[in-house]
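R.M. (postdoc): so does anyone remember the format we settled on? I'll just put the structure tokens first.
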């Protein structure tokens, strides 16, 4: 588990092969800034948020461009389960979720509806139990080939076209798009550690600094210098290291 007071997000990894990260922000964690810059993200997630006494649940797909959200002064809490590449909800094809979200048609403080069935609303502490229930019900499945290919392993007994099709079906994105997004996210983390842009170019596998600059503008909406400079009024969406091989 880690706590980033500046970012206002508490997060932890998961032992589940289906889950990348579990996080929460707001009540029960720490206060959050006025705005959040949601940078491009190649994972999909399930998000629970409470605002002014109401509970909302949504499945949010991968994001291919940045957005800035006004968090407002609310006292609600947000809990998110970020899923690993290759895991997907069978009733909600990931390609249809790219750059959008599907909200549960009915929620209460304790339950929500998913695929016509009522489910207990997950919390930060029982997220893994919730995921196990989805797996046992056959709603959450995974394609190990996708995970392995994105990790950089060679696919055997499968044609390149079949690999491309399975990656797109499980993630909603192409291999190239995923690697571009993950490279940009890695660059943001390195810049946040105070690393100079020229060093980031070498470590993240960019061709040169203009290539880095174009990538940051496309996927984060910020320059390298701005990302290295803390902004107390704006937080970045959760950053985490995945197993995706980002170098060319």
């Amino acid at each position: 588990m880690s706590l980033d007071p500046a970012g206002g997000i508490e997060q932890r990894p998961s032992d589940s092969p289906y889950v990348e990260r579990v996080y929460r922000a707001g009540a029960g964690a720490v206060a959050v800034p006025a705005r959040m810059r949601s940078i491009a993200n190649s994972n999909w997630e399930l998000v629970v948020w409470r605002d002014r006494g109401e509970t909302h649940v949504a499945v949010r797909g991968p994001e291919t461009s940045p957005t800035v959200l006004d968090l407002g002064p609310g006292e609600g809490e947000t809990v998110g389960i970020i899923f690993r590449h290759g895991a997907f909800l069978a009733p909600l094809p990931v390609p249809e979720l790219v750059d959008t979200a599907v909200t549960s048609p009915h929620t209460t403080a304790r339950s929500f509806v998913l695929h016509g069935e009522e489910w207990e609303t997950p919390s930060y502490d029982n997220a893994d139990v919730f995921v196990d229930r989805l797996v046992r019900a056959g709603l959450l499945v995974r394609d190990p080939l996708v995970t392995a290919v994105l990790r950089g392993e060679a696919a055997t007994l499968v044609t390149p076209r079949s690999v491309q099709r399975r990656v797109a079906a499980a993630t909603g994105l192409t291999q190239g798009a995923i690697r571009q997004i993950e490279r940009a996210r890695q660059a943001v983390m390195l810049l946040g550690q105070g690393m100079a842009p020229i060093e980031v170019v070498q470590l993240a596998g960019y061709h040169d600094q203009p290539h880095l600059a174009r990538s940051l503008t496309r996927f984060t909406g910020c320059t390298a210098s701005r990302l290295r400079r803390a902004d107390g009024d704006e937080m970045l969406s959760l950053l985490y290291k995945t197993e995706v091989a980002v170098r060319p």
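R.M.: ...and that's the designed sequence above, right after the tokens. Also worth knowing: Confidence is low (pLDDT under 50) at residues 1-6. The two ends are 31 Å apart (CA to CA).
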